[in-house]
Amino acid sequence: MDALLHAMQPLFASAFTLWGSGITWLEIVAFVLAVAMVVLNIRVNAWAWPLAIVSSLLYFALFWNSKLYGDASLQIFFAAVAGWGWWQWLRGTTAEGDALTVRTLGPNGRWLALLALALAYPATALFLQHYTDTDVAWGDAFPTAASVVGQWLLGRKFVENWPTWVVVNVVSVGLFAYKGLWLTVVLYALFIAMSFVGWRQWRQMAAAA
What is the DSSP string of the chain? Predict the structure, then answer.
């Protein structure tokens, strides 16, 4: 990993300074791709997924360099699951064999999603606390665990992915501010607003289906 980060050092060069912290070229490129990805997600456009792969790999390098190992590992998960999500949006079907459409999860599904988060959050935090040198194990673990749930919901076109992202993004804003990743703070603040837009539009789609 150190060798990879060393090879990427030109991308870690500072493009400008924001609130006392240098903003790297890598962070700028990842920012632009991530915004485009969410816009396409809101529009239920499958091209969001290849953008997700590239932006996730860039954010992996950025977060690992900042010792946010949970969020860094999450980006690898995002990149891997983006291939699955792309396939789901193009060829996936429901349990009844119908093509996937935007729909709601239902009460039982919501409880199961909350249970998955309740189990994954402390497990992730304890792993980070004992096996890495992160200084924000519990703060890093929550958005990591919740994002896994959110990504599955998004891939299966459930409306509930959007409120999940609202929570993830609110927590992430505080986490990245603590780490001085200010352009990423701006990105995740923008994500909060975009998540509400997506939530509204997908609810309308589900109601019209």
Answer: -HHHHHHTGGGGSEEEEETTEEEEHHHHHHHHHHHHHHHHHHTT-TTHHHHHHHHHHHHHHHHHHTT-HHHHHHHHHHHHHHHHHHHHHHH-B-TTSPBP--B---HHHHHHHHHHHHHHHHHHHHHHHHHS--S-HHHHHHHHHHHHHHHHHHHTTBTTHHHHHHHHHHHHHHHHHHTT-HHHHHHHHHHHHHHHHHHHHHHHHHHH-
pTM for the model:
0.82
Angle at 170 between CA 26 and CA 67, to 5 degrees: 45
**CA 56 to chain centroid:** 8
Which one is predicted more confidently, 179 or 189?
189
User: For the purposes of burial, counting CB atoms within 10 Å of the CB of 20, is it exposed (0-12), middle (13-18) or buried (19 or more)?
Assistant: exposed
d(CA 161, CA 169): 12
Tens digits of residue pLDDT in 129-159:
888 888 888 988 999 899 989 999 999 999 9
Residue showing tokens 């990591």: 144
